[in-house]
Task: inverse folding
């Protein structure tokens, strides 16, 4: 189901459902590399101007920029990851939740905007019994598209 056109309330509900459903039994380096390679293949096939990142236990294990991506995309990746690491939810989820509250993430939580971005594209890597151990993040497309690209790749490895 595409998230495009959903209200913020529906986005909160749908992203929460995704987070609860997309839980891995394990997420080692080999799987992290496979996720990165799948993002690379999809990005190249679609000639997408993206940068993406797979971080596990605080270590960047796969980072790539494709044609059309800029230095700003790397900064967006870090800012989106900071949101996931701080709140334990996807960056899209947090953006929608903050908009529902009538406040930006910066206002609501007194966060510096140059360090946190509650725009879609960063998704937590949940491991059963361990919790959130990392992030998969895309930057360069509209925020719903960034988010949906990440989710579609994670779903592929859980089917």
Result:
């Amino acid at each position: 189901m595409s998230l495009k056109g959903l209200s913020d309330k529906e986005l909160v509900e749908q992203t929460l459902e995704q987070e609860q459903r997309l839980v891995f039994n394990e997420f080692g380096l080999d799987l992290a590399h496979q996720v990165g390679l799948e993002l690379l293949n999809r990005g190249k096939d679609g000639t997408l101007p993206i940068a993406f990142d797979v971080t596990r236990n605080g270590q960047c294990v796969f980072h790539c920029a494709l044609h059309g991506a800029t230095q700003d995309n790397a900064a967006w990746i870090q800012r989106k990851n900071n949101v996931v690491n701080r709140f334990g939810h996807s960056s899209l989820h947090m953006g929608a939740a903050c908009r529902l509250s009538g406040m930006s993430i910066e206002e609501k939580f007194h966060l510096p905007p140059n360090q946190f971005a509650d725009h879609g594209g960063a998704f937590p890597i949940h491991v059963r019994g361990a919790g959130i151990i990392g992030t998969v993040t895309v930057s360069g497309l509209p925020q719903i598209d960034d988010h949906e690209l990440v989710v579609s790749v994670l779903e592929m490895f859980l089917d």
